[in-house]
């Protein structure tokens, strides 16, 4: 089955800096790669996603890049704000089933 | 986006008892899943709830421990049977709206504490 590894497990940045979280996956058949943000005590919510026929996608301060050959994808957050502090999960999906990374706790210090 | 109602939102249970969690979606969906999130951990897929047939369980999860029902395209239940403290966790219902692949929408979760 799919195995998704996520790094780093914790990340602390100053407000205004950029944050990068990286994931690798094992199943070359996976074709959908979402990123979810989970605030403390809340449910995970999608912030951005990318499909395997696309190399990069951007939505305001958030971008995701995908390298299918190397089987890795990354989340980039620019101009971080304190409200970006949360746990971020990457996932790889194949045949409707999503496998999640272990999560990255992002702390943005004001 | 799909609106998912889960109940109970939290419960404290005694060892050896069973608890059923309900998940109601405001629209018909094909794909419905049950995840477990242990404290400070990631989300682990328990099973895919299949409408009208037995659920599809992931490795490490069995029907006797986690029986699942899905009588229609908007509703599912997960039972945690013969609970032990190791079952203390958040259980989340999730759906894919409008197809078989894509964004997962999650319920608010059911936080179970087993004493």
What brief labels describe this structure?
heterodimer; A: 110 residues; mainly beta; six-stranded mixed β-sheet; five-stranded antiparallel β-sheet; 11 strands; 0% helix; 59% strand; globular; B: 115 residues; seven-stranded mixed β-sheet; four-stranded antiparallel β-sheet
Question: In terms of topology, how is this protein built?
Answer:
The complex is a heterodimer of chains A (110) and B (115).
Chain A: E1 4-7, E2 10-14, E3 19-25, E4 32-38, E5 45-51, E6 56-59, E7 62-67, E8 72-77, E9 86-94, E10 97-100, E11 104-109
Parallel strand pairs in A: 2-11
Antiparallel strand pairs in A: 1-3, 3-8, 4-5, 4-9, 6-7, 7-8, 9-10, 9-11
Chain B: E1 4-7, E2 10-13, E3 19-25, E4 31-37, E5 43-49, E6 56-57, E7 68-72, E8 75-80, E9 89-96, E10 104-106, E11 110-114
Description:
The complex is a heterodimer of chains A (110) and B (115). Chain A has 110 residues and is mostly beta strands. Helices cover 0% and strands 59% of the residues of chain A. Chain A has strands spanning 4-7, 10-14, 19-25, 32-38, 45-51, 56-59, 62-67, 72-77, 86-94, 97-100, 104-109. The radius of gyration of chain A is 13 Å and the shape is globular. Chain A starts with a strand and ends with a strand. The mean pLDDT of chain A is 95. Chain B is mostly beta strands. Chain B has no helices and eleven strands. In chain B, strands 2, 4, 5, 6, 9, 10 and 11 form a seven-stranded mixed beta sheet that branches. In chain B, strands 1-3-8-7 form a four-stranded antiparallel beta sheet, with no helix packed on it. Chain B starts with a strand and ends with a strand. At the A-B interface, β4, β5, β9 and β10 of A face β5 of B.
